[in-house]
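Intended use. Records like the one below are meant for learning the mapping from a protein sequence to its folded structure. Do not use them to infer anything beyond what is encoded.
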Amino acid sequence: MTEPRPGDAFHPGDVLNNTYRIEALLGRGGTSDVYRARSEISGRLVAIKVLKAEFSGNDDYLVLMTREEEVREIRHDAIVRYSENHRTSDGLVYLLMDYIDGPGLDRKLKEGPMPVDDILAVCKRVGEGLKAAHDRNIVHRDLSPDNIILRDDDPTQAVVIDFGIAKDTNEGAETIVGNEFAGKYAYAAPEQLSGNTDARSDIYSLGALLLANYRGKSPDVGANPMEVVQKKGEPLDTSGVPEPLKTLLDRMTAPDPSARFQSMKDVLAFLDHGDDAQEALSDETVVVAPPKMVTPKEDKPVPPPVQKQKPAKAPAKKVEKTGSGSGGLIAAAAVVVLIGGGAAAWFGGLLGGGGPEFPPVSPFSLVIENTENLPVSASGHVPSTDLQNALVGRMNDLGGTTDLTLASGDIAPSWEDDVLTVLDDIAALDNWELALTGNVADITGATSDPAVLSALTAKYPANWPGGLSGTIDVALTSLFLDPALVDDLLNQYADCGPLVQINEPGPTGYGPDDPVLVQGTLAGADSKEALQDALDDLADGRNVVVDAELLNADLCLVENYLPKAPESNIEILFSNGDTGQEVSGGVFTVGQNPVIDVIIPDDIFTGFLSVSVVDVSGNVHHMLPNNGRADNSVNTLRAGENGVVPVRAAYSVSEDSPPGSIAFRVDDSSLGKSKVLVIHSEAPLFRQMRPRTESAVAYAEALSEQAQAGEGLIRSLNSRILTTSQP
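Structure written out for the chain above:
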């Protein structure tokens, strides 16, 4: 853990979003800090990356934080899971992700050389995760030992974190902004120094960090920029590295990208089959004896064997669109590892030593899902190529994807058939997920067909097939969406006045193809995004349009306390005091003179008009009544005239204006949205005259008191936004 400082964004004990209590500061970076926190609702540990205050208002960094959040679309256990971005009331932006408990490779680097079998295990695990990322056109670009963590100190459970917030937003990522790059020249690919980056750059960085951990020290990249450029053009020193690890690292870290492995798929094929990877695709594997070698550190004891699920057989053909298999690693590596004994269990199936057919993993997990708004997918572990091929076929039929790793684990002999049986049973659901950990399975989903729900609940959870057990949670949904549910959600998210549905659904509610249209005002872009997400979840695939005007916090404060009253025929007109021309859009630039007129229609002769403007700086200016214009009765304002009568509320600076009048020009001290309010009441709105200018908070309190004391006083409320901006 890192010692906290007084200037840190968060401190132990702080609670974010009413949910996450900060427990410790995990580390500091050039642009962001990472904290460990715990959900007070679920107790789940999470990691929170917070962008430093000086970058929270920088659009470039916000784009990068959003890009990092997009990594949540990668579904692989070797890639940290991201949740979402938030912003605190102080403006700090933070990103929520899974907390991975274990040492980083940077700590292992300080402890000294790692055994060969551990290096190969990390390469395979991280390579599979990066392949999943590269398949989605996401390149890490900043791999180094400090952003790979070994969950539970297990190399086979390595997890890649930190997909690089400190990057240039330009395509190609020519530079790394801030000062984070200075410490990572050792692992950056040569082409990154000139602004070129693709998946092969990640291959280089992974090879460079694996070499560093094998030797127990970081590469020497030189003492100055000239030496860095020179050394980056030279091959890394792999002398003394045993085969096949040496060949693997040489081909991962060739200075010329075209001389490297061209994809993570190629790296994984080499790990599976050595130099005979292409021939192995036709079910042939050649065992090549490596040269004599001495490992730098005593390898770990052989783990206990895990019961095989089927008789041993040669590794089968790799299947396209799946995660890379784990059946062989490099045949030559099998001989190497037998010398140290540390990973004999990885290769027993190849060499006939009675070990497992595929590498053992724990937990043995598989997730197959067909959920809304996401492609159908299957990811995790499978015990045979038969099940792998079956799942690939099913996912292909549904237009989905697979990321499957061949492995062995503590599962029932009938596990494969059991999984396929459950998939057949839940296929009729509208959406579903099957999550398995060992022999424990969980079904979640939804259906609009009561018969489907009845059939499933009659079987599960009492009669799981074979050796499986678990739970089922399937919801019965309606083909129609109740507008009352939408209203409940709108009331929950309304933070700046009322939100309303503007289209009328049928008598049974919104049909499957009916759009949901919402209008109103909200406190900002974050509020609109949160409402949009919540409505999308509720609307079950229907088109949702949130046509909300975004206001500032002070306008919203007043908006929430405004009396509930209908609009009337009273109009609010804007014009330019210098030219006399109407400004229909209500937008004035710096230097212009806004003129505001309130138009009394020909059917209003009694009552009182209160005209105020809530400006962008959080102040309320009372144009009518005020100490200079105390009489605001409609009769006085009409001055004996019938018909439509204009009443000037804000004057031109060049005209003669009566005492108490307001005239102003737009300056650049506070630009944004202000709101003009016209309230028509039976009697004076307030018992005492309000000051000509007061805070939005004071005005909101006065409105609240008026609402409690003067029910039925308000006839109508009209408003209009006035926007000030730069020319």
